[in-house]
Every structure is written in C-alpha cells, then in structure tokens.
Amino acid sequence: MLRTALDLSGRVAVITGAASGIGRSSAQVLAELGAAVVCADINEGGAEATAKLIAEAGGTASAARVDTSSAASVDELVASAVAAHGRLDVMANVAGIMHTSTVIETTDEDLDRVLSVNFKGVFYGCRAAARVMVEQGSGSIVNMASSAIDTTNAGLVCYSTAKTAVVQLTKTLATEVGPNGVRVNAVAPGWTVTGMTGRHWTAEDGTEDEARKAAVAAPMLKMSPLKRVGEPEDIAYAVAYLASDAAKFMTGQILRPNGGVTMPW
Ligand SMILES: NC(=O)c1ccc[n+]([C@@H]2O[C@H](COP(=O)([O-])OP(=O)(O)OC[C@H]3O[C@@H](n4cnc5c(N)ncnc54)[C@H](O)[C@@H]3O)[C@@H](O)[C@H]2O)c1
C-alpha cells in the first residue's frame, strides 16, 4: 500500500535548484519513484548533468534554465513543462542561495538578492504551479525552508527572514488551494553537505580539504542527538514523501529532517 502511495508513475515534477545538492537529489529520487522530471536551474549545465544522471539510471528527465528571481522566467518554466507533458503534479521550489552579514552590514543589494531568490523565487514557483494545479484539481507543492526558521543566528538575517517568509507563504497557500485538491508543504532541513555548505572546504578547482570539512561539520554533529549531519538524499526523501500520495493528509506542514537539532512543537 505504501509502495503504491509513493509511486509517482505518470506524474510530472518540476524541480528548481536541480543542478546541485538537495535539488539534484530530489530530482533523482522523484524520478526513481517514476515521475517525469524537469530539472531546472540557473546553472543550465548542472541541470543538464542531473537530467543525464537520471536518464542513465533509467528515469525520465529533461533540463531547463530558470532564474527563479524572475517571475517571467518561472512562469515560462512552468508553461513549457505543461506544454511538454500536459500536466503538472509536483512543483519543488528548492533553489536558494546563502548569504551572511549582520543587519548593520547588510547592503540594499544583498537584501534584495537574497529575498529575490529565497523568498520571491519560491513565491513565483508557488503561484505559477498553483494556477495550473487548481485548474487541474490536483497537485503537490514542496517548498524549501531551513532549520534557520527555528533558530536565531547572528549574521543570517537575510537568509533566515526569507526562509521564515517561505513558511508563511506555504501555510497561506495551503489554506487557499486545499479545497481544490492541491497540497502545499515545506521542508526545513538541518545542516546538509552540499555545494552551499561545501564552499567552506572546497577550492575553486573542486578539491576538498577534508580536515577543514571535519572542522566545519564538528559543531553541527555535536548539536545533533543522532550525531550526524545531513546528506542530500535525507532531504530528498522528505521532498518525495510530501510530493507523493503517501502525504495525502498533509498540507500546510513543515517537515524537519535535521538530525534532531531543533524540535519545535
Ligand atoms: N545545505 C544546507 O545545509 C541547507 C540547509 C537548509 C536549507 N537548505 C536549502 O536547500 C536548498 C538547496 O540548497 P543546497 O544546499 O542544495 O545548495 P546548492 O548550492 O548545492 O544548490 C542550490 C541550487 O540553487 C541554484 N540557484 C541559485 N540561485 C538560483 C536562481 N536564481 N535561479 C535558479 N536556480 C538558482 C544553484 O545554481 C544551485 O544549483 C536551498 O533553498 C537552501 O537554502 C540547505
């Protein structure tokens, strides 16, 4: 029964941020469950590489360029996915950027850039997908928040504010489109090893400093009762669950794959 509920055969999924990390892994897992996946990213080469990995594993995928900070670009992405496949069942708004600066140091440009990608990009994805899904009478939208919604970190104001806004967007949209058969949920991952976190130990030529990686991960490991940090697939499994009929009673919820680092009510 659960296998059937997780089966995404015949479904069409669009994933932003699919060139790397959590987005790439989510695209791979959704494809493994049977969905035809559109891998979208501002990094078109990376999106193509993800689609190739999926095809090599026997899945169905295509790649598309999108800049999620542009409403027109996101609208175009969703319109072409629907034109190509005739429907849209899953929209995973995963693309995001990291930025650190205190409130005092933050420039207008920093603030605009982070809110544009991390909040407005998710809003545009939600709006474009919801318009199609409401008409269709079904669909699941999964937004990427962060455990930064539950903690207060000096220097993370732009990022955590944008991610908290994603939570409010998720709940509001869930309320609006639930009667039309559309579910909207968010995933709030804990610290996960991806390109976003890897910048701390990865040189420009891609070589990794293992000692630096261990040093950066150490405080994260310490905070987790499970004594582990996240791998992209840990988060992708949460995305896949929310995308599938296994989560048919879930909407407006925030799922927290975070190793137990935060445990809000
Ligand atoms: N890695 C973590 O510890 C962690 C924790 C919590 C939440 N997250 C969130 O997970 C999501 C994925 O992050 P990740 O860790 O896989 O990082 P990542 O850097 O590996 O992937 C982010 C992807 O988003 C793409 N992207 C950035 N700006 C874009 C834009 N304007 N338009 C389209 N694509 C764009 C990038 O090209 C990249 O492929 C982000 O929203 C991030 O905030 C990550």
Describe it for me?
By secondary structure, the protein is an alpha/beta fold. It folds into two domains: 2-192 and 231-255, NAD(P)-binding Rossmann-like Domain (Rossmann fold, 3-Layer(aba) Sandwich); 194-229, no CATH class. 47% of the residues lie in helices and 13% in strands. The protein contains nine helices and seven strands. A seven-stranded parallel β-sheet has the order 3-2-1-4-5-6-7, with helices on both faces. Helix 2 packs across helix 9, helix 4 runs parallel beside helix 5 (108-136) and helix 5 runs parallel beside helix 6 (157-177). The chain is globular and about 45 Å long. The structure holds nicotinamide-adenine-dinucleotide. The site of nicotinamide-adenine-dinucleotide has 30 residues, from helix 2, helix 5 and helix 7.
Question: Descriptors for this entry?
Answer:
alpha/beta; Rossmann fold; 7-stranded parallel β-sheet; 9 helices; 7 strands; globular; binds nicotinamide-adenine-dinucleotide
Helical stretch tally: 9
Number of beta strands: 7
The share of residues in extended strands comes to: 5-15%
CATH topology of the largest domain: Rossmann fold
General form? globular
How many structural units, i.e. domains? 2
Outline the low-pLDDT stretches.
none
The CATH architecture of the largest domain can be given as 3-Layer(aba) Sandwich
Helix-strand category = alpha/beta
CATH superfamily membership of the largest domain, which one? NAD(P)-binding Rossmann-like Domain
User: Which class of the largest domain in CATH terms?
Assistant: Alpha Beta
